[in-house]
Design goal:
The structure holds 3 protein chains of 3 kinds. In chain A, α3 crosses α10, α3 runs antiparallel to α12 and α12 packs across α13. By secondary structure, chain A is an all-alpha fold. Chain A contains 13 helices and no strands. In chain C, α8 crosses α9 and α16 packs antiparallel against α17. Chain C has 2 domains: 190 residues, D-Maltodextrin-Binding Protein, domain 2 (3-Layer(aba) Sandwich), CATH 3.40.190.10; 194 residues, D-Maltodextrin-Binding Protein, domain 2, CATH 3.40.190. Chain C is of the alpha/beta class. Chain C has 17 helices and 13 strands. Classes of the chains: A mainly alpha, B mainly alpha, C alpha/beta. Chains A and B meet through α1, α3, α4, α5 and α9 of A and α1, α3, α4, α5 and α7 of B.
Chain lengths: 289, 288, 433
């Protein structure tokens, strides 16, 4: 090889490199623009919530010039969003704690214990994941009504205290642990439940985080069940409050967007904090799928 | 073995109790209720056999409901799965540096509630709203979106797909990233260009994921309720009167619990069929 | 032994957690009642008043509480669409509110539950001057010779028009249309597709909104909604066809009416609309949806050979059976709210129509109406032409079905004849149930 060939090869490589960078930059530009478009409704929501009613229809500046916080005050006055928040927090905590605790327990049993009917029971449990809510909705409502739990926190929480998805998740998680993890403890005379409490539970943080965020989002964003179980606006959750607010102030977007922003902030915040676990779980299911 | 069983009982008893009470038992309860004409209030319940079902089958409103629900379901599934795959491919091509950033951005609509999304998009779709203004500013005449029987469901589909996009993107991305580089190298050596590499390496290896996403999307989208309730209430002309809404109105607005239970059973049957058909195709997909 | 040690803590933990959730729920849920000292009564008042109306009722409640320190009333506003389902849901299983209002057309259903207190049985019923209420409204609350509800507010529908749009199109802003033909002409002049401006806004959404607006046109043309014995539909008649054809002409033939959604007039995008008295309160400066441009009201235009008519809307107030102590306290509030003095204040605050003769003739009210809010005058003058909707238990279902069938004609999917025929079939089917 002579020098001319070498420098020609170097130039070719350089061109390829630059082409690669240019291509990637275009892709980034496209993705960022698309990301902006995807988030546009939220940007519109926030900027509209900060404008006075008269300027409602004027296309928003990218960076608002004034921050008209009064809309939030008016929204909070017109509907008891504080009360809705309280209700939703109580219900969400109930559902999340219940699901975390009971799924871990049941998942442990299915993963590490042997008992008659285990596989059949697990299959039945799994199959419930495919059952659409509409065939269980009316009877669940009637059952709750029969227990006198209409319009109560318990009525909102009870049907969702347990999650088949959560049990599946914890079983997968616990099955992965080494088979002999419990052997020493068993030889020392610990009971199965003590083993769960002292060995498995402390090691479950990732699973708790994962199920935690799924359960939180499910509970926080839930609409249909709270809609039929609550009668008194005092017991409404934030989603119902928002839907009703939209019915009454439908064309006054500034207040409406203030109310909407209020309702989605916790979900987005929790997601951003715990997104690592959520997305990791999705990625895992993708590979297993 | 005995104390294992005892421990197991304690561990799974609450789960079995709740799922039994609120998921399994209600299935039978629904079947039973669907054979009555109960209104949910009176102390007496009349058995009417299968007349609710014959009413449903001959009801134009019911079939319209199924039709528009399927329209929504298929629309959202196809758009969001294809877009998710495309987006994931693009993100993959950037070498993954900003991948986590993009994942979060596109995912935010996924964690928003359908109610909040519905409220925001309803305002955007209003004739005085942002979208219509944008159309007019570029010289097009926008349709009356949510008040137009032709455009109402496409509007819902747009929102539905927007909400699913991030989810499908993340899963597709994980699938793409798990394809060994070796396959692509070999294809490059064999002289395959980018497009052919996509056709003959990516797609076949992604088949299981694509099918998984389709199944999840189809079953999930069929259950839509919040979006239709908030954005259109089922109109105009029943163009968005999805199955869930039909059931809700019959049970809780018209006081026809027996009839509504029959609707619930029909929905169950249809979802079951969709799932079984998917699983058959899934099996074919795997073998190929 | 060792197994027991393992089982017990976990079992106890499970019980404790469930109990804790239940305890927190019970505490928070029951807390309000703990604040009531003996002798005090807590009442819940369910209604669907919002905006200025909500402010008005809250102000009046405070006034009542000041005069009656033992009674504490919580105002609970629920949207119109959900109030009836929620009331019926509590009837089935839950806590009924002590006091509530119902749309006129719900009263048959509500009284039919058997859970309303017969107000006429109260000892001091004669003192409320029952004959002072308008006869049409009194009829609504009466069953088996007892009164289960009292009129608390009324409204009717008349024409609103945008004076600025009139002027911009060379029309006299003080000369609104008086006939259907004029309405159509003016609508055609004012419609401007490029600006997104419509001539006349009609309510085309599913439900009572459409039904009760359409009924005005039907009655003006000389038709009836149901037969006199309330057993069958009567709107599939030449008069019904004429009314529906007019709507279809506005929407489809001449395209001066938008097929939806509702709200154009309030946004300044429609020249005319038929709406209710409460919107006078809402659209005026200081209302909850204030309009900044010039607008006026007028009697609804009538068809040639037709008669003026409007729809009688409003609410009735009633008491659920609870305890005699609560019922007595609730009755105090009901009496007070429906008394002439309070009604005058209420009507001035909300722009609702009088339900009592004495209010309509009250000098304070009349002076206010003619000087401060003259836009109410057409409504007051047309109150005499108000028709009541038929009182049947199935009215909500009939209304929904009727609107659904008519929508098909409004969207051009079926002909006027077909729409009326299928609406008739559905309504008769519901009535036969």
């Amino acid at each position: 090889m002579n020098e001319r060939d070498i420098s020609q090869a170097t130039v070719r490589n350089l061109i390829k490199r630059i082409a690669g960078i240019v291509r990637r930059t275009w892709v980034h530009i496209f993705l960022l623009t698309l990301g902006f478009v995807v988030l546009m409704p939220f940007l519109w929501m926030i900027t509209t919530s900060l404008k006075p009613l008269e300027l409602m229809r004027v296309p928003p500046h990218l960076i608002p010039t004034h921050f008209y916080w009064q809309n939030y005050a008016i929204a909070l006055e017109s509907a008891p969003f504080g009360r809705y928040y309280l209700n939703t927090i109580i219900v969400t905590i109930g559902i999340v704690v219940g699901q975390l605790f009971l799924s871990s327990l049941a998942g442990y049993a299915f993963a590490r214990l042997r008992f008659p009917g285990r596989n059949i029971l697990f299959l039945v449990l799994l199959s419930t994941l495919m059952i659409p809510i509409y065939i269980t909705l009316i009877p669940s409502y009637l059952i709750i009504r029969g227990f006198g739990l209409v319009n109560t926190y318990l009525g909102l929480i009870l049907p969702f205290l347990v999650s088949a998805f959560g049990i599946f998740l914890f079983r997968q998680y616990y099955i992965g642990f080494p088979k002999d993890l419990e052997d020493k403890a068993l030889m020392d005379g610990c009971s199965r439940l003590q083993i769960w409490r002292h060995i498995f539970l402390p090691l479950s943080k990732p699973a708790f985080a994962t199920l935690g965020i799924f359960a939180f989002l499910f509970a926080w964003n839930s609409f249909l069940w709270p809609l039929i179980v609550t009668t008194d606006p005092d017991m409404w959750t934030i989603q119902i409050g928002l839907a009703m607010f939209s019915g009454r102030y439908g064309t006054q977007w500034t207040y409406l967007m203030a109310g909407t922003t209020i309702s989605i902030i916790p979900a987005i915040a929790i997601f951003i904090i715990l997104q690592k676990y959520y997305i990791k779980h999705l990625a895992l299911s993708a590979r297993l799928g | 073995m005995k104390d294992e069983t005892k421990a197991a009982i304690i561990c799974i008893a609450p789960a079995i109790a709740i799922i039994g009470t609120f998921t399994l038992f209600p299935i039978f309860y629904s079947f039973g209720l669907s054979t009555t004409d109960w209104d949910g209030l009176s102390p007496t319940i009349n058995f009417v056999g299968l007349s609710n079902y014959s009413k449903l089958i001959s009801s134009g409103a019911f079939w319209n409901s199924i039709k528009v629900t399927l329209y929504y379901t298929v629309g959202v599934s196809i758009i969001s799965v294809i877009a998710g795959l495309a987006l994931a491919s693009l993100i993959n091509r950037t070498g993954g540096r900003l991948a986590s950033f993009y994942r979060v951005i596109y995912f935010i609509p996924v964690v928003t509630s359908f109610v909040a999304a519905g409220v925001v998009w309803k305002s955007l779709f209003s004739p005085a709203g942002f979208l219509s203004d944008t159309f007019r500013s570029i010289g097009l005449s926008p349709p009356n979106w949510l008040a137009d029987p032709i455009w109402a469901m496409p509007a819902l589909i747009i929102v539905g797909a927007w909400m699913r996009l991030g989810f499908n993107t993340v899963i597709s991305l994980a699938g793409l990233q798990s394809i060994p580089r070796g396959y692509y190298e070999k294809a490059k050596i064999d002289g395959a260009g980018a497009l052919n590499r996509f056709r003959f390496v990516t797609i076949p290896l992604m088949k299981p994921i694509i099918l998984l996403l389709l199944i999840m999307s189809l079953v999930d989208a069929f259950l839509i309720f919040d979006l239709a309730f908030v954005m259109t209430g089922g109109g105009p002309l029943g163009a968005t009167n999805v199955a869930g809404l039909l059931l809700y109105k019959n049970a809780f607005h018209y006081y026809k619990m027996g009839f509504a239970s029959a609707i619930g059973v029909m929905i169950f049957a249809i979802v079951l069929i969709i799932t079984l058909v998917q699983m058959r195709l899934f099996k074919f997909g795997r073998r190929a | 032994m060792k197994e027991m040690k393992g089982v017990a803590p976990v079992a106890i933990a499970v019980v404790i957690i469930v109990a804790a959730i239940a305890a927190v729920a019970a505490y928070v849920y029951l807390k309000p009642e703990e604040e009531v000292s003996p002798g005090e009564v807590e009442l819940k008042f369910w209604n669907y008043w919002d905006g200025t109306n909500a402010q008005a009722i809250v102000a009046l409640i405070s006034e009542f509480e000041a005069e009656n320190p033992n009674i504490h009333i919580t105002n609970v506003p629920i949207t119109w669409g959900e109030l009836l389902p929620k009331l019926m849901a509590t009837v089935a299983g839950g806590e009924v509110p002590e006091i509530a209002i119902g749309d006129l057309v719900w009263m048959s259903k509500l009284a039919g539950t058997g859970l309303l207190v017969p107000l006429s049985e109260f000892d001091d019923f004669e003192e409320i001057d029952y004959e002072d209420f308008y006869p049409e409204m009194r009829k609504i609350g009466r069953y088996n010779d007892k009164s289960y509800s009292l009129p608390v507010s009324a409204n009717n529908l008349e024409l609103f028009y945008n004076k600025e749009i009139f002027e911009a199109n060379g029309l006299d802003p003080e000369d609104p249309p008086t006939t259907w033909d004029e309405l159509l002409e003016i609508a055609q002049v004012c419609t401007d597709p490029d600006e997104g401006i419509w001539g006349m806004e009609l309510y085309t959404g599913t439900g009572e909104g459409l039904t009760w607006q359409f009924q005005v046109y039907l009655w003006q043309a000389g038709g009836e909604f149901l037969s006199a014995d309330l057993s069958s539909a009567a709107f599939n008649s030449p008069e019904g066809k004429r009314a529906l054809q007019f709507w279809v002409d506005l929407i489809q033939t001449h395209e001066v009416s938008p097929p939806g959604p509702w709200g154009f007039f309030g946004q300044g995008k429609a020249a005319m609309v038929m709406d209710g008295t409460w919107m006078v309160g809402g659209w005026r400066p200081g209302g909850w949806a204030p309009i900044t441009w010039d607008w006026g009201t007028a009697q609804m235009p009538i068809p040639s050979g037709g008669e003026p008519a409007t729809n009688m809307g409003g609410e009735q107030i009633f008491i659920f059976e609870t305890t005699s102590e609560k019922e007595a306290a609730a009755w105090e509030f009901v009496k007070w709210l429906t008394s002439k003095e309070t009604q005058v204040k209420w009507d001035i605050l909300t722009c609702f129509m009088p339900v009592r003769d004495s209010v309509a003739e009250d000098s304070l009210y009349l002076t206010w109406a003619t000087t401060t809010e003259p836009r109410l005058v057409p409504f007051i003058e047309c109150q005499q032409y108000a028709h009541a909707r038929p009182m049947v238990v199935q009215y909500p279902e009939i209304s929904d079905a009727f609107s659904e069938e008519l929508q098909k004609a409004l969207y051009g999917v079926v002909s006027v004849d077909e729409a009326l025929a299928s609406a008739e079939a559905r309504v008769n089917e519901i009535l036969a149930d």
